[in-house]
Design goal:
The longest helix has 28 residues, at 13-40. The protein is mainly α. It is built from six helices and three strands; from the N terminus they run ααβααββαα. A hairpin with a 7-residue loop joins β2 and β3 (99-103). Strands 1-3-2 form a three-stranded antiparallel sheet.
């Protein structure tokens, strides 16, 4: 549930400013990601796959679900990225029949060149906030993400 501060009217200037800043942030992030993709010759699905795998190795099925592609399309995507030395397939330790996919050191190095400076500057920026301010930022981001996911699900289910 998203709580609101009742002292700020729904159409208040601060709410409008936040909405505008979020839209500009989304646009700036997408534009940056697209520019990195052009530089590295990666399409949007390939970028999303690599970003997803930065969290650790995953099955092809998990990749398909996370980036919204069919299993056949993900197999082709993995083949392309593996051919470029950006991904590798390994057998699962728990179930030898299962193939896991992970990024290579080369992929981590390539993407790190563009995203590590942002992560480091972002960490320094966040360090300027107090603990209560960080809790508010986190509550906002989690609520905004839940809202976006809810509306994406409705769109995908034909309810919009």
């Amino acid at each position: 549930m998203i709580e609101t501060n009742s002292s700020i009217p729904a159409g208040g200037d601060l709410v409008i400013a936040i909405g505008g800043a979020v839209m500009r942030w989304q646009d700036a992030t997408q534009t940056y990601d697209e520019a990195v993709g052009e530089r590295l010759e990666l399409n949007a699905a390939e970028r999303r796959c690599l970003a997803f795998l930065h969290g650790g190795q995953q099955s092809a099925g998990a990749i398909a679900a996370a980036i919204g592609l069919t299993p056949a399309a993900v197999t082709s995507l993995i083949d392309r990225l593996e051919g470029r030395g950006l991904l590798k397939r390994t057998r699962s330790v728990e179930d030898r029949r299962k193939v896991m996919v992970e990024i290579t050191d080369a992929a981590a190095s390539l993407t790190g060149r563009y995203y590590q400076p942002i992560a480091e500057e972002g960490a320094r920026f966040l360090a300027t906030f107090s603990e209560p301010e960080l809790q508010t930022v986190l509550r906002f981001l989690e609520g905004a993400l839940a809202l976006q996911e809810k509306h994406l699900a409705a769109l995908k289910n034909g309810k919009v």
